[in-house]
Amino acid sequence: xxxxxxxxxxxxxxxxxxxxxxxxxxxxxxxxxxxxxxxxxxxxxxxxxxxxxxxxxxxxxxxxxxxxxxxxxxxxxxxxxxxxxxxxxxxxxxxxxxxxxxxxxxxxxxxxxxxxxxxxxxxxxxxxxxxxxxxxxxxxxxxxxxxxxxxxxxxxxxxxxxxxxxxxxxxxxxxxxxxxxxxxxxxxxxxxxxxxxxxxxxxxxxxxxxxxxxxxxxxxxxxxxxxxxxxxxxxxxxxxxxxxxxxxxxxxxxxxxxxxxxxxxxxxxxxxxxxxxxxxxxxxxxxxxxxxxxxxxxxxxxxxxxxxxxxxxxxxxxxxx
Length: 321
Known about the structure:
- With 321 residues, the chain is an all-alpha fold.
- It has helices at residues 2-41, 46-60, 63-75, 81-94, 96-102, 110-127, 133-156, 160-169, 173-187, 190-202, 208-221, 223-229, 235-255, 259-267, 273-292, 296-306, and strands at 312-313, 319-320.
- It is 78% helix and 1% strand.
- The chain has a two-stranded antiparallel sheet with strand order 1-2.
């Protein structure tokens, strides 16, 4: 019985990850070059960079992808550290759209999306033009993954693994933060981790404080993707990756002292529990944006002061490590 439950869960997770990647790649095929051009050209102010980061993430359905693109552009000397940081901050807010998608009951959209997506894709093949059919099919796969994951999560509530996870996450927000961070680091996706948390909330497997803590941790855990992408790059590219990590960590530090008030604020945003959890993701990232975006230049200066090359020139001309 447990093998069947775990198998369904794994299949649902693969559908979900596959749907997100399929939508991302399909959007890149249609709008990727356009978004690349925007990222390179229209980042003259922090506000513009922030908007581009948010919009690009909404289109590509992946803040990790946008952040990795930023690391690449800085490494190619197309963007400065300041421009990259503003885009990354925007990407963090843009990814909250995906968490909102998990909070809706969207199962009734799956069949219409499959039918219309298939029809448009056939027209694409015949006309040899990209019309977005694969995007609709990818969204249908994503929504199917969400629904299947919701079904597969229900039996997991009686397993030893879930009980241990539940017990570990209770009592302290730091435990939930650690759980969410580890899950996002392993899955390489904060969106999927947050989606799972929202679905667990829908099945009443988590209460609001536990769900919020895991969501905050998931945003922190996903920073591993940009950190890995920055390995072997030039110094500013590594600095923006560290900037992504520090931004998420600092946002958590800002929220934790006001934890009870934050929970109360989220609880009154909606009568629907899954929506409350999704809203918390948006509010938490919005707090970080309000604090960091006006100080982007100073933030860049701090990163340049802290994150330096390992190899430094000795005063006698030698090189030290």
